[in-house]
Each structure stands twice: as structure tokens, then as C-alpha cells.
User: Fold these one by one.
Assistant:
Number 1:
Amino acid sequence: MSILDFMLLDITIVTAFFDLGREKWTPEQGFTEGFQRSTDVYLERFSNLAAFENELVVYTSPEFVAEVQGRRRGKEDRTTIIPLPFFDLFQDRRETICLIQRSPEFIARINPVQHRNPERVSPDYVLLTNLKPYFVLHAVQNGFVRNGQVAWIDFGYFRSAEQRAGSDFWQYAFATDKMHLFGFTPYRGEIALDDIVANNVAYIVGGCVVGRKELWASFAALTNRAAQELATRSLVDNDQTLFLMASLYRPDLFDIHLVGVEGWWDPFRYFNINAKT
């Protein structure tokens, strides 16, 4: 491996926001307490992501375009917004997820404590989390990414400005021959895949992934393979499980950086040359 494998490439950020009706995710509607969230909360949190000077690509519904533009004011030359009719797309995949979530076999296999979590009752939530690599690959293939590295970051990832670690520009010399995931704990096969899904065990941070733009096609193919494998077993799950499975299919393609059980925002503290705190 040469020094060229650790080039300091600027990072394009890709994200997406579609209103999944989370404002109504209440216990009365069949969800676990604490998952309710309004669109205003998401947009306010997005302001913290939008403060980065990085090139940013946002997929969203037409009704949120103006809100996104307003939060990127002054950075128009580094901002691409793609309006999409999300709920009119991917219907076959959504129907597959919905059928599995409602199947007696799936319900019987899930830990009863997890029955009311979004991964178990919201097909739109599972669909959107499964499509994160798709959106990044779409941005790459359509020329929306001008930088060598590209990352997915969740739209509402930063709950406060402090979680950006004092930085307004995310930049780090990630190894260019790897996809970079961030993990809470190493996975050594101690829990079977079915039990990971059944008990909602998270090994990988789903909200932040980064890699050289040429590698995202491979990553998207691996996560699609993971979703298909789960479906053949009458299972569905969110991005965290798909990313773990992808890393098991091709361990040579991935660096998994451990951030600890409370390390959701560590990528921007310890993997950012501009971090100040």
C-alpha cells in the first residue's frame, strides 16, 4: 500500500429526506414510545448537517426543496437537490417488505420486545434505510459527485452543532481502496443472523458511511444481495444489518472503525482533520 492509498480527498455528502409520517409514530398507532418525530425536528437537525461547507446532494420530496435550499443559503454552488416522488417509486420492493412484516412467520420470529419498532411495522422506514447506497450510487452515476470520496450521512444525523466537533468542513485521508463503516463492537459470529434481526442488535452505525466514489457500485450490490438473502429467509431489517452482511460477504472491501456504544458522532471527531473538540 502506497501513500496514494491515503490521499486527502474532499468528501461529497449524500443524504435524503422523505416524510414517512413519523409524527404519528405513537404508541396509540402501534409504535414503541420515543419514535415520534415531526418534520420540523428533522429540518432543524438538518441545519447542522447543512452547515458543512462540503459538497452536498439531497434527495427529497418536491415540497421540501425550498426548506433545503434555505438551509444551504450561501452554498448553492456546492448543493444539488433532486426532488423525487419517493412513494411512487420502488413499489415492488416496498410490497415485499410489507408482506414479510405482516407474515405470521416473521412476527413469530421477532422478540416480542421489538414488535413495535419501526423495522417491524413500517415498510417505508425499512425501504428508505435499505436504499441509502442506491441514492449515493445514483448521485455518482449521474455526475452529481465531483469529489473523489463520497459519504452517506442521515438527514437528521446531527442533533446539535456540537456533534460536528467544531468543524465546518469534513475532511480525512480515508484509505481509498476501502469502504469505511463505523462499528459499535466487532462482530465475530457470536450471534446468528436471524437472532441479530430478531433482537434488533446493532453492530454498525447506519447513518454514516464513506468511500471512494468508484466503490459505491460494489457496496450497493452487496447490500442488495443482503436484502435479498433476508427476504428468502422471510426477514427484513434496516441498514445496520445490511451493512454488516455486506462486510461479511467482502471483508477485503471494508475498514470498520470502532467508535464504541455511544460513538454515533465519533466519525466527525476522530476522522476529521478539521475537528476542534
Number 2:
Amino acid sequence: MARGRPASTTPTWECHIHLRLRVGEDDDLIAFLSNLPSGRRALALKVALRSGGMQPGQIAGGGIDDDLAAVVDDFLK
């Protein structure tokens, strides 16, 4: 008798993601990920990506955050 859930017959696509999070800058993300059991991080990331309104146009040109950072940098100079 096999243990665990039955093997899926659905094709899968693997994507390995490596993040470098900076203490002091990414503390919210560090707290979010570090409070999850390692086996649940992929599911939590999928939920976060789906609820965040993924828009390829925002990422293709550097993203909204990069544009905002450039404006702030210009203002502070």
C-alpha cells in the first residue's frame, strides 16, 4: 500500500527561484517567508503572486519600483 497522496498525472513546469533579500530593506518579505514552514513556501508564493496583480508590462521596463526609486533619487540630489 502506497503512503501519502497519489502521484499526479498532470504535466508540471518547474521554475526554481533564488532570492536575495536585504535586511533592513526587505524585512517584510523576510518575516513572511521565515514564518512559513519550508514545505509551504511555494504555495504561499503562488498565492501572493496571484493576488498581487501580475502585469508583465510593469516588469519589462524595470518595473514601477525602479521608476519610483529613480524619481526619489533625483529629488534627493
Number 3:
Amino acid sequence: MIAGLTKKLDSLKDIEILHLHTHGDAPYAKSEFKGKVRVSNLFVGGNIRKYVDYDHVDYLPCFLSEIPYLLSDGPKKVDIALIQVSPPDKHGFCTLGTIVNVTASAIDAADLVIAQINKQMSRVHGDGFIHTSKINHAIDVDCRLDELKVPILTDVELRIGQNCAEIIENGSCIQTGIGSIPNGVLASLKDHKHLGIHSEMWSDGVLDLVECGAVDNSNKKVHQGKIVSTFIMGTQRVYDFIDDNPSVIQLGADYINNPRIIARNPKTVAINSAVEIDLTGQVCADSIGHRIISGVGSQMDFIRGAALSSRGKPIMAISSRTKSGKPKIVPFLKQGAGVVTTRNHIHFVVTEYGIAQLYGMTLGERAKALIGIAHPDDRDELMHTWKNSYCLL
């Protein structure tokens, strides 16, 4: 479908393409289409980063929970929705399968719906049902879904996971994302009991917990007994598990990411990560300096929801250093860096060196706690900068 759209761009004008995280080629983002199409990313994936110039290819910051309103009633109301669905059942109903998030709202708003009906798309319960009568044009395909490789976890990622597991109680309701650190946390929860899942997304690490009995969703107050999310991405093993499985439901991001809904589940644990965190607790999660590398996503929605949950725990889990050896706990955020989670919202920060509980702490107490879980080789410099930049007025 994307290839066909790109071929048509030469004959079109004043086109704006809106999307969240995408995989695979993004030929429409190439410079040759500048002036013919504008790409507005709600989340910048790896396939788009090199094209971002804030003109032809731009970034639109927005909480995931609010994107459905942006697309249906806001300034970015959708005219045409390009979607992928599972084959229709005997009643004519397809499903959006692995991705519902903001797609259902886009469909409702659109004047024209073009669907790729994929024979291999999982049929998933929830809010993603769409009758064929609502599809204006359909294309039948038979292609495998993109799979997400299961990462091999390092000692650092496993230690971060073990530290997080220490503060996660039995009966907790978990939100987590994509990546090695979330997988490290999930891998450390196999001895826990009665865990639940209410998350923007989930992958193979959650399925491992289902299969070992750690996740049964029995302690949840909202959708008890069910795994709920807005999108799912994993290996074929995950896609086979969710196919026509009534214990798995996909719902819109305006519901799943609503902090008031999140807070209704007791012991909600939000596990998120960051590019860097400064000594006062400000979290940059979407950029390296001014260069956008991802997006706001669900971080703030779940951080706030977990904070409002009874015995909830918002956790920021990071390695103390990047793979290239640069500190992730820093005196100041890089120039141009955006604050996704404010110092007012931060509660727990976890690295491979320990746990810093920042909620209720003064700035001075926070700095000492964060320095204590930074890489040992960075601690003296962090303390020196704190004393000489923050403390000397």
C-alpha cells in the first residue's frame, strides 16, 4: 500500500501524511517529494529519523491519550485512513488486529477508508472491529507481519530488571514498552504472582510471564482476567497467541492511556525509560539535544496514572551509561533537549546500581540520591558540578 501511495505522489499536491511509529521503508519521506507532501510524525521511528528536517518531515509532540481527539476533532482531522485488517468473518467484520491505538478514531473521522486485508493478520478482540461496509476500497494481500526480535539481555539490563523487581509487588498491574530494559524487567518477574497487564503495548516478554503463570490478571479492577493494550508487536509466537483469544483485547489509546482509567487498577507499575535525567529529576525521553529520536508516546500518561493508583509506582528504568559510555544521569539536560516527564512527576529512578526514590525529596536530596545510582566513575564529577553550579549562587 505504501509503495502504491508513493508512486502517486508525483501527481498529487498539498498532501500531509500523519502516522505514529512505523517499520520498514518510508519512501514518501525522501527529499524528492519535498513540496509535494508533508510528513507529520506523532512518533519518530528509526526509519524516519534521518529524514527529519522540520519542514518536509516534521514531528508533532502530543500525549498518546490525546492523539485520537487530534485526528477526529482537532487541527489534524483525517480525510483518508490507510489501514491493515484481518480477513472478515462470516458476518463481515474485520479487526484492526495488532494495532488499534489511534486507528479507530482515524477511521471514524475519515471520509475515505482504504484497507489492506491481510490473510495473516491476527484477529483480535476489543474495539478494533470494522465492518466491510465501512471500507471504501480494499486490497487483498497475504504477507507475514513484521516481527520484533527478542533481544539478548546484557548483565546491565538484567541487573536493572532485578532492581525493579525488588519494588514491584505481587498483584501489580504492569505497563511497559519496547526494548532491552523493559525485557530485562519482565524477565525478572517470573517468580511474582497475580500480575496484570494494562499497557500501551506488549511483546514476547509478557507472553513469557503468561506462560509461566506470573500474569493472570486476577487482581485488576478494570478488565479483570484480560490483557489490555493499544498495540502488540512481537514474534510470530505472540501473533499466534493473540489470534481470536478472548483473554486479549485491544482498545483505543484515548481509553487505555487515560490516567483516570489507569489509576483505577491498584498497584499500577509504569516502567519507562529515558535518554537522560538531570540531577533535579527532569526526564528527556524523545530527543538527543534538539534531534528528535522518538516521541512523547505513553510515558506521561502512565507515569501520572501510576502515581494516582493505590500503591502505584511510576518507575524510570535506565542504564547508568549509554552503549558508547556517556552518562545518562547528567547535571543538566543537553541544549535543546525536551522534558517529557517533569521533575514534579518523577517517583522512582532505577539503574543497575540501585534505586532512587525521589518522590517527597528536595532538590538537594534528589541530587544525592541520583548521584548514588549513577555510574561510579561519574559520581565525583556529578557531585562537583552540583556543588559548583547549583549550590553556588
